[in-house]
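Extended Data, panel c. Modelled sequence:
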Amino acid sequence: MRYAENTTISSDKSRAEIEKLVAKYGASKFAYAWEDAHDPGAEAAGRAQIQFVLANRHIRFLLPMPSRNDKSITHTASRKWQRSDAEQERAYEQAVRQRWRALALVIKAKLEAVAAGITEFESEFLANIVMPDNRTVAEHVRPQIERAYIDGKVPAMLTQF
């Protein structure tokens, strides 16, 4: 079972909810973008992107979209029969709506945790903070974490950004 797997709330409404939410908590900028997969037959899917500036930090969330070729889209869950084109489109749209609802939940939970004093803004959004080179902290740190687990050595400090 996935969060909001049967939601009827549109992707547009979820995106607008996120925009209102970050504005409520003091965001000074908000942007939304999307890209579709280049090849309709490709396994890779498109993605959406939400960016905002809050607490003097540029924050970016990438939202991967489901692939239209994924079996969860092309086939029924119970019998694994292939869906009609119309059923596949409905399944795809449902999966997209579910992802947008999940992103709205994540952002709301992070902002509420900060507001309640449970955590600090930078700790909660650390992975999504965009550095001056336009890469997120997560993009910088993930390879170092991987190396640390392979080598068994923790880096003395992060690489310079």
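The CA atoms of residues 11 and 97 lie 5 Å apart. This feature is highlighted in the accompanying rendering.
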